[in-house]
């Protein structure tokens, strides 16, 4: 039961129409409170992660794709090792490995403009190399151009040819973008 003066201007239950006016006033106040509470408790709009989900290298096409949310987000032209065909078997064969790996750490002070490490060799790579009596090698990286390279013309020549010892090379501006978009722990698949 509402009493006169509980809400200013609310008549007592004995006034004509007072009960319905009181009910409407209470309902209105409750709706306003619920509306304000819901507004305070609502989640902020979802924001997309600044990082990509995975990396896909297609050696035969000389491309590297960054994938985000199930779609190709960026594509880059790449250079590979001097002997690009086939899977890396041993140290010094100048091949880029093929298979599933992880981009597991990075070096901002590399001999090449920034570098991100590919987790080669994996357990299978080590087993195969051991069965052949060779070292599988390692230090396969995604990196930019050599730091000593200052000629734009020569840099363009590097971009048009396979020149690494088995790494995946891109231009320096591209490497800056990859550096920002790829975090440690990102999976990379390297296809023939």
Describe this structure as you would to a colleague.
- The chain is an alpha+beta fold.
- Helices cover 27% and strands 22% of the residues.
- It contains four helices and eight strands; from the N terminus they run H-E-E-E-E-E-H-E-H-E-H-E.
- It has helices at residues 18-41, 123-132, 152-159, 172-181; strands at residues 54-58, 63-68, 71-77, 99-107, 115-118, 141-143, 168-169, 186-191.
- The chain has an eight-stranded mixed beta sheet with strand order 3-2-1-8-4-5-6-7, covered by helices on one side.
- Strand 4 and strand 5 form a beta hairpin.
- The N and C termini lie far apart (81 Å).
- Strand fraction band? 15-25%
β-strand number: 8
The biggest sheet amounts to: 8 strands, mixed
Order of helices and strands: HEEEEEHEHEHE
Kindly state the percentage of residues in helix.
Answer: 25-40%
Give unreliable regions as ranges: 1-15, 31-46
Q: Give the averaged pLDDT, no decimals.
A: 82
**SS element count, helices:** 4
Terminal residue distance: 81 Å
**Helix/strand class:** alpha+beta
Q: How big is the Rg?
A: 32 Å
Shape: globular
């Amino acid at each position: 039961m509402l009493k006169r003066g509980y809400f200013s201007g609310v008549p007592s239950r004995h006034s004509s129409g007072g009960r319905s006016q009181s009910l409407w006033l209470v309902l209105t106040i409750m709706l306003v409170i619920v509306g304000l509470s819901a507004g305070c408790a609502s989640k902020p709009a979802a924001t997309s992660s600044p990082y990509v989900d995975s990396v896909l290298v297609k050696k035969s096409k000389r491309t590297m794709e960054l994938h985000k949310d199930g779609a190709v987000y960026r594509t880059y032209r790449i250079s590979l090792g001097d002997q690009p065909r086939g899977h890396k078997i041993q140290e010094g064969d100048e091949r880029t490995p093929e298979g599933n790996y992880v981009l597991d750490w990075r070096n901002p002070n590399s001999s090449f403009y920034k570098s991100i490490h590919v987790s080669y060799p994996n357990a299978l790579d080590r087993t195969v190399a051991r069965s052949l009596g060779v070292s599988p090698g390692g230090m396969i990286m995604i990196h930019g151009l050599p730091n000593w390279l200052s000629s734009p013309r020569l840099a363009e020549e590097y971009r048009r040819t396979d020149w690494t010892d088995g790494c995946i090379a891109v231009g320096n501006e591209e490497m800056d973008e990859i550096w920002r978009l790829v975090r440690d722990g990102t999976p990379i698949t390297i296809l023939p």
